[in-house]
Design goal:
Keywords: Dipeptidase, Hydrolase, Protease, Signal. InterPro entries: Peptidase_C69. It is an enzyme of class 3 (hydrolase). It holds the Pfam family Peptidase_C69. There is one protein chain. Strand 12 and strand 13 form a beta hairpin. About 50% of the residues are buried. The protein has about 550 residues and is α+β, with helices and mostly antiparallel strands. The strands form eight sheets. It has a seven-stranded antiparallel β-sheet with strand order 16-14-1-2-19-20-21. It has a five-stranded antiparallel β-sheet with strand order 10-11-12-13-15, covered by helices on one side. A three-stranded antiparallel β-sheet has the order 3-8-9. Helix content is about 30%, strand content about 20%. The chain folds into three domains: about 325 residues; about 130 residues, no CATH class; about 35 residues, no CATH class.
Length: about 550
């Protein structure tokens, strides 16, 4: 994803001297969810990405029309390709047919990067959403595009899904030596969960299962030619051949997927050697969960900080006196000449936008796809429903309403950041206040959507579309107003390290109208103890 965390992790060739590629995508098949939805999540993490909802209306195009290709990361013009006769409307990373595509970048072997191609990974996603209805169509279109026009980016994993099936495709260029890319795509079993997070996840794959596994004809041959592999075809690992491996790559990348698996499936401790040290058996591409994974589960999974695992970010001294599950960049630091790393969880402070895409064939056609969309840190955002059929983007999420250098109080990104950035400094004290508002908003939205699922089938298409447009707009306004109020409330309540007292939902005053003396929040016991351990009796009361 754009302008990623700069991580230099020792001998990690995958991420050395390059920006760290820092997005997460999780998947749940339709038989792994309680209501038959296919679920795909995405966190677009970047230090320079402003969270907004992209939109490109579909339509008919005359012969000879050209489609400009602009690199998503940089905004740089790369060239033009012929437009197709008809394109579909896109709402963020979903189109009007409920097809969703997300990604995570893993870089891979630097010699395979090709700057001569036209199709960067972002353009590959959004152009394909304009042209495909199903994952299988999308895979063909994506691979045809890079074979025809060249691939401009480095190694990439894609989640590609609709209401019937979900796929993971991994792809890397040929370094300009040959046009196109080598790639593998695997269908995720309907009763399983999967994910990827900046490290290639496809290892061995069946060579003759054409229904569930697709790959470029030269994916193994090219690896042999480049000296990446010399074993038997059936033992070939795409990940080991094209994505250079290091223990920090598995911990910082596969670790996020492991945390997802660990939440819903027993036995994941057996893969901790792989996660922590890149030793032992690689973690599988998918696992069967022990229980169904709901839409709400996926929202909260995107807020994960490794809680309750060996990488729990609230447990070491880096969390400070307020159990803050965040670490400021850079991702590594040195002490006495030794290099150490900060954990990299799913939820992170530099997220531009995230979503949970819900695709369900039993829903009314205009609600076949629902993009539950959030901006800024997934941990503190509210996921607002954007329907695959809407024809206008709510102002609060629209492109052009503020940017990363221009504050806008009616932009969802800025009010969410207003709330989040206060919590980063007194997390354990503020998070319950945030959760109360966040949960109330999301519960309300889920209830409203459940009502629409029963009401929309009785409406004519125009009335139904109008209703859904209005709901996304109303929900966005309500959320932004509520979060601006929440940010103001946090500022007043926790100002100067004090905690204002409340009564009957208001800050408490004396009978004379003065503020009641606040609670002195102080710090936790570990913080005080660390002071004493470092300075001894220097501050001792004698």
């Amino acid at each position: 994803m754009k302008m990623f965390d700069k991580i230099v992790l020792g001998a990690l060739a995958l991420m050395s001297v390059e920006p760290a590629l820092a997005c997460t995508s999780l998947i749940a098949g339709k038989n792994a969810t309680p209501d038959g939805s296919v679920l795909v999540t995405y966190a677009a993490d970047s230090h320079t990405l402003y969270g907004e909802l992209y939109n490109r209306p579909g339509g008919k195009h005359a012969p000879g029309t050209m489609r400009k290709i602009v690199e998503w990361d940089t905004g740089r013009y790369l060239g033009e390709i012929p437009e197709v006769a008809e394109t579909y409307t896109t709402i963020g990373n979903m189109n009007e047919h409920g097809l969703t595509i997300s990604e995570s970048t893993w870089g891979g072997r630097h010699e395979l990067e090709d700057t001569t191609g036209i199709m960067d990974y972002g353009s590959l996603i959004y152009v394909t959403l304009e042209r495909a209805k199903t994952p299988r169509e999308a895979i063909k279109i994506m691979t045809d595009l890079v074979n025809t026009y060249g691939y401009h980016s480095s190694g990439e994993s894609f989640s590609i899904a609709d209401s019937e099936e979900a796929w993971v495709m991994e792809l890397i260029g040929k370094g300009g030596k040959e046009k196109g890319a080598v790639w593998v795509a695997r269908r995720i079993p309907d009763d399983c969960i999967s994910g990827h997070a900046n490290h290639p996840r496809i290892h061995k794959f069946p060579l003759k299962d054409k229904e569930n596994t697709l790959y470029s004809p030269d994916v193994i041959k090219f690896a042999r030619k480049m000296g990446y592999y010399n074993g038997k075809d059936e033992d070939f690992s795409f990940s080991l051949a094209y994505g250079e491996l290091d223990g920090t790559a598995t911990r910082g990348c596969d670790g996020r997927v492991w945390s997802y698996f660990n939440r819903f499936a027993d036995g994941m401790d057996s893969y901790l050697p792989w996660i922590m040290k890149a030793e032992g058996e690689p973690m599988p591409l998918w696992v069967k969960p022990d229980r169904k994974v709901s839409l709400n589960d996926m929202k909260w999974m995107m807020r994960d900080h490794f809680e309750g695992t060996p990488m729990d970010m609230t447990k070491d001294v880096g969390a400070g006196p307020y159990a803050v599950p965040y670490r400021w960049r850079p991702m590594t630091f040195k002490v006495d000449g030794k290099e150490y790393l900060n954990e990299r969880a799913i939820a992170t402070q530099q997220t531009g936008f995230s979503f949970v895409s819900q695709m369900n064939s039993a829903h009314p056609e205009l609600m076949r796809g629902i993009l539950w969309f959030g901006v800024d840190d997934a941990n503190t955002c509210v996921y607002v429903p954007m329907y695959s059929s809407i024809t206008s983007i709510p102002h609060e999420f629209a492109q052009g309403n503020g940017d990363l250098l221009t504050l806008s109080w009616d932009a969802a990104f800025w009010v969410t950041s207003y709330v989040a950035n206060q919590a980063y400094h007194q997390y354990s004290k503020m998070i319950d206040d945030i959760r109360r508002v966040q949960k109330a908003e999301e519960d309300t939205l889920e209830n409203e959507v459940r009502i629409f699922l029963t009401e929309v089938p009785a409406l004519d298409p125009d009335a139904a579309r109008s209703l859904l447009n209005d709901h996304s707009a109303l929900a966005s306004r309500r959320y932004v107003k509520r979060y601006k109020d929440l940010g103001d409330y946090l500022l007043v309540k926790y100002m100067d390290g004090n905690i204002k007292k409340e009564k009957d939902g208001k800050f408490e005053r004396t009978p004379e109208g003065m503020p009641v003396s606040p609670v002195f929040g102080g710090y936790d016991d570990r913080y005080y103890r660390s002071i004493v351990n470092e300075i001894g009796d220097h501050l001792l009361v004698k």
